[in-house]
Amino acid sequence: MVLLIINFRYLKNVKKKGNSKTNQSNKEKNLYSALNDFHSGSRSIMEFNKELKVESVSKETLFVSIIDDDAIIRSMLMKILKVMNFDQYELDLVAYEDGLQFFESNRIIEKGEHFLILDGVMPIMDGIEILQKVKKLENRTNIHILMLTGRKRMADIEKALKLGADDYMTKPFSIKELQARIERLIKRMK
């Protein structure tokens, strides 16, 4: 039903521009004709959809890496991110329990945009160390970082932001606020 509404609105705009053969592409004419046939009852919904052959819009892959030593936090973040939807990106989610595991995976060298959620306090390579290493990489302009940590001192926050973190949240955190911050950061990309 949504498909019909979108296509009907599209066709109304085409019709407003003028429905002369010179103003319409073949695709627009076929779409308009198929919709008119559907509305008149001479075509079923299945025939109409087959005629449309609507092309799906492909989304870019956004590589999202969660790096946190707490299994509960990793699991919660994965659940939150799995239900989030973005117009321009399809999320490719992977969680790691420390920075060493993350770098050994070579995920960060994948071509495309990256979004990292970093814990600040971890036994093997903490969030600040990961941040420093990531910001030295050649593709650093395609890497966006949200620090999500128990470190609440102003000096820690300032250091992370100066090193290039895009945002900083302290634990414990509000899930709604975290979702809003993630959405804002991802929508600002490209």
CATH architecture label of the largest domain = 3-Layer(aba) Sandwich
Amount of beta strand: 15-25%
Average pLDDT: 82
The CA-CA distance between the termini, in Å, is 32 Å
Poorly predicted spans: 1-23
Our count of domains comes out at: 2
Looking at CATH, the homologous superfamily of the largest domain is Response regulator
What is the CATH first-level class name of the largest domain? Alpha Beta
Radius of gyration: 23 Å
Structure in words:
47% of the residues lie in helices and 17% in strands. The protein is of the alpha/beta class. A five-stranded parallel beta sheet has the order 2-1-3-4-5, sandwiched between helices. Helix 6 (127-134) links the parallel strand 3 and strand 4. It starts with a helix and ends with a helix.
